[in-house]
Amino acid sequence: MIQFFFLSLLGIHGAVGVTHSLKYFYTASSGIPDFPAYVSVGLVDDLQISHCDSITNKNVPKQEWMERITAEDPQYWEKQTQICAGHQLNFKNNIQVAKERFNQTGGTHVVQYMYGCEWDDQNDEVGGYRQHGYDGADFLVWDTKTNTWVAAKQQGFMTSARWNNDKAQLAFYKNYLTQECPEWLKKYVSYGRTFLMKTVLPSVSLLQKTLSSPITCHATGFYPNRAEMIWRKNGVELHEGVGKGEILTNNDGTFQMSVDLDIRSVPAEDWGMYDCVFQLSGVNEDVVTKLDKAVVKTNEGPSAFPIPAVVGGVFGGLVGIMVILGLAAVVYKKCLKKGNNGFKPANNSDTSSSSSDGSDTKKVPAEEQKMISSTA
Questions:
Q1: I need a surface site. Which of 1, 107, 292, 373 has the fewest CB within 10 A?
Q2: What CATH number does the domain containing 248 carry?
Q3: In this structure, how many other beta carbons lie within 10 angstroms of the beta carbon of residue 73?
Q4: In the UniProt record, does the keyword Membrane occur (predicted)?
């Protein structure tokens, strides 16, 4: 299981190590209008570093510091574009075979593969994960402890049995995820250290759709994503009547999050007892916002404000990686939840060395090239 880095409210300001991550997402779809049939993205610390799709047919860097790799390999991005082209053919075949496995014909279908690794820069511990998904559900999951594939669906039993009999392939995957992938991750972190290790505090707003709706404390523009946000009453953290949202990525690489407070049972004269507290790892100062009607932006009353436009504008700005992962969120909701494992890509050769982008798209047996289709 992935050991995600979570912060406790009491220890968030401490001198702690940072868990870095390298993730790759591959998504192929059919029957979805105005969306690429194939998309692949790479992320370092949840920041998009690469992108390729079937419309542009080109793998490109998404961070300036990722262009530094061309100093070592001038043909780097050209090679990645060629790999991307090969993946498109494999994934197109995967969808067709998966449909046959599930006795399906037309309609909208999605094949996904996610994999990656993590590295704790304090104790140097590493971990890896990989997983295949189909139409919003787990299909095949790699068990990190036993180094075996586990079929989450009956239609995947033949595939897991075949892959588990290939000891060389299993050994390669384990070595890649625990050795090669972390080394690539360390290299990428060194490229982008100035950006990845920075800290930026957010702007915080209090929002309310209607006068009877919960008060939303919304923070945006912060970095990194190791943050905590709570509501307090008289300095004591509240749990009842509080709803926390997930940390989301903005299009500029920063993050946003929100936490709701149900105020239906809070008398107006008691509002001054409440405040919203944002804490960011590595920063000693908290961002404290008092619950004050004068600063709440709402759709009703004298302080009327177009909240849907504000929230819509924020979320509308989640382009790039969030557009890609937006589809993933719809068809494969588990892939980014706590403690979940991930997918991984098809590749082009069963004899070549590991990919220069840190992805294991080479040196993988032919079985993996066809992924689901290898057992058709």
A1: 107
A2: 2.60.40.10
A3: 12
A4: yes
Cα separation, 131 vs 36, in Å, equals: 22
CA 251 – CA 20 distance, rounded (Å): 20
Q: Please, is 264 exposed, middle or buried when counting C-beta atoms within 10 Å of its C-beta (0-12, 13-18, 19+)?
A: exposed
Please name which of 267, 376, 334, 309 lies closest in space to residue 112, comparing C-alpha atoms.
334
Task: Tell me how far apart the alpha carbons of residues 144 and 95 are, in angstroms, rounded to a whole number.
Answer: 26
Q: Write the Ramachandran bin of 124: left for phi over 0, alpha for psi from -120 to 50, otherwise beta.
A: left
- Residues with Cβ < 8 Å from 83, sequence gap 6 or more? 59, 347, 348, 355, 359, 361, 362
Report d(CA 90, CA 348) in Å as an integer: 9
* Beta-carbon contacts of residue 112 (< 8 Å; ≥ 6 apart): 25, 26, 27, 28, 132, 133, 134, 328, 331, 332, 335, 343
| CA dist., res. 286 & res. 288, Å (int) | 6
Q: Are residues 123 and 166 in the same domain?
A: yes
Tell me the pLDDT band of 323, cut-offs 50, 70 and 90: very low
3-state secondary structure of 246: coil
Dihedral Cα 44, 45, 47, 51, nearest 10 deg:
30
Are 324 and 25 contacting, i.e. CB atoms less than 8 angstroms apart? Answer: yes
Same domain, 52 and 133: yes
Pairing of strands 126-134, 248-249: unpaired
DSSP letter string, 118-176: EEETTT--EEEEEEEEETTEEEEEEETTTTEEEESSGGGHHHHHHHHT-HHHHHHHHHI
Spatial contact of 311 and 209, defined as CB atoms under 8 Å apart: no
Question: In terms of residue numbers, what domain contains 268?
Answer: 203-319
Per-residue pLDDT tens digits for 92-146:
888 988 999 999 988 899 999 999 999 998 889 999 999 999 998 999 999 999 9
pTM across the whole model? 0.72
CB atoms closer than 10 angstroms to residue 163 = 23
Query: Are residues 61 and 184 located together in one domain of the fold?
Result: yes
Q: Are 296 and 206 in contact (CB under 8 A)?
A: yes
Angstrom distance (rounded) from CA 224 to CA 76 = 28
Q: Among residues 291, 319, 347, which one ends one of the domains?
A: 319
The number of angstroms, rounded, from the C-alpha of 373 to the middle of its chain's C-alpha atoms is 26
